[in-house]
Amino acid sequence: EKHRTEEAPTFARTGRVILLVHGASYSGVTTFDLQVPGKPGHSLMDFLAEQGYDAWALDIEGYGRSDRSITHNSNTAVAAEDIRAACEYIFQHRKVRRLHLLGFSWGTQSAGLFASSYPHWVRRLILLAPVSQESPWVESLRPHLETFQRQRYRANTVEAVKARVLAGIPAQAMDPQVLEYYAMLAVGRDPSSPNGPLVDILTRMPLVDYGKLGMPTLIAHGEFDDVARQEDLTVRFREISSNEKQYLLLPGLGHMALIEKNRHLLTHALLNFLEAPGPAW
Known about the structure:
Mean pLDDT: 95
Number of helices: 12
CATH class: Alpha Beta
Radius of gyration: 18 Å
């Protein structure tokens, strides 16, 4: 959790509280609070705190510092329940009744599932780089479904992390030093990742009832994102029941937009959405 100390007493009044939900491979801190020595500006949490937001990130069951002793296959329903527990904790400590919610990659499914069940708890919903049916990444997973169903975890390696980050993007889109540091950090914090989310992605999509998303909602992804498929997401966008919704295709960005060179395009778009005024009546 990050915020500027002098602004902490105002969060209950302003409602500038946001919870960030990670994807299917790496933990909340790895995804949203990357601190590269000598290269600042890769932490979304720092950016939001600088803008006066109280930014929180959680580790879903089986990731990062959360419980890894589980005997079941952690999945999207489990993640949505973890989000509910995190919201209750934040509400208690910040004396707020609602917050902004951002889900990244598979986190768009768990955050969307939660938001459709607890719409009165969510001020604004951001679905960043959503997992899409029939996207290149999803199709690459399909031959391994039986393995994912049989094994609770899959091993992560530095080389595999780097390959995933670079998938689909031009070589100049990513700083090599940032990539190397991110890959080592990701594997250090998550030497393995639960397979339950991948089983859900391959067998249960779409996991979100978009017709129940009545809060202001943003769908955003990069033009090179091989996880987000525009043909699928435009259909989901039309299903969103809110009349305050946006779909953004961001140039020069891939799936790991938060740590790429053009990430300022994303953070600018996120802030514009969070700061947008509501209708007068």
